[in-house]
Prior knowledge:
By secondary structure, the chain is mostly beta strands. It has one domain. The protein has 1 helix and 15 strands; from the N terminus they run βββββββββββββββα. It has an 8-stranded mixed β-sheet with strand order 2-3-4-8-7-9-12-11, with no helix packed on it. A 4-stranded antiparallel β-sheet has the order 10-13-14-15. The longest helix is centred in the C-terminal third of the chain and has 12 residues, at 164-175. The model has no long low-confidence stretch (mean pLDDT 91).
Amino acid sequence: MKLSVYTKEAEGKKFFYVYVGREFHYRPTYIMWISKDLIQTDEEGRLFIQFPVIGCDIKQGKKESTLILKKGNLNMYYYMIECGYRGSSYIDKVFTGDDEQTFTYFFDYYHSERGNLGISRGVLALTKSQKIRVSWHRDGRLYGAPASGVTILYSDGKIEQLTDTDLEELAELQEEKV
């Protein structure tokens, strides 16, 4: 997952930030200021940040809607589950499978100014773990898409989607000890 990075200049210095989430009348949930060490450039010269971000840490700014991403020893994952048409999506649980502490920052993404076309839910998860599992469900007009499932995000960028039927099959296999 890539997010476009914006710049702001003040007193001759450049500062980098991204918008996370999109709420009522397209206001961002968070403005995340980013250390220049974590920013990448594509072949056309545009700045972006690639998730998962390995080797980072996050700090809450003075405002509740401000986050500061800098170098550290943790991993940050970004995940958003798309809602159905005129529906909503929900993140039930974010877990690592280890006893590691995970910091989560939830956000909404409105698909229209007031959310009439649907509201998707997303999360920024900060942990030491090399993978996270996100349990989710959604409603609205899904047009054949699964209503719930689990997504596994790995630190190398790999993503696994497990739907309800996949989880039932895995539970059966574990019972039979295959």
